Fold this protein.
Amino acid sequence: MQNNEQTEYKTVRGLTRGLMLLNMLNKLDGGASVGLLAELSGLHRTTVRRLLETLQEEGYVRRSPSDDSFRLTIKVRQLSEGFRDEQWISALAAP
């Protein structure tokens, strides 16, 4: 028996926070420090550091040794490679 109702799950807080940091870095030209990202996000500096180190380990951000700031890598752009304009257009054009 199929249930057409969607099951509601709690969001994964760590994923939400990591995506928030990626969005912030995308808007901040030249990268950002842990302190600035903590201030803008309202997260504790230690939390921001751990999230950034995880994103760095996965290849989505890199740390600049000269000023200890974090920047996005090309791997972030690869996330959109599976996106097709036709899907976006058909979603907008739906009645």
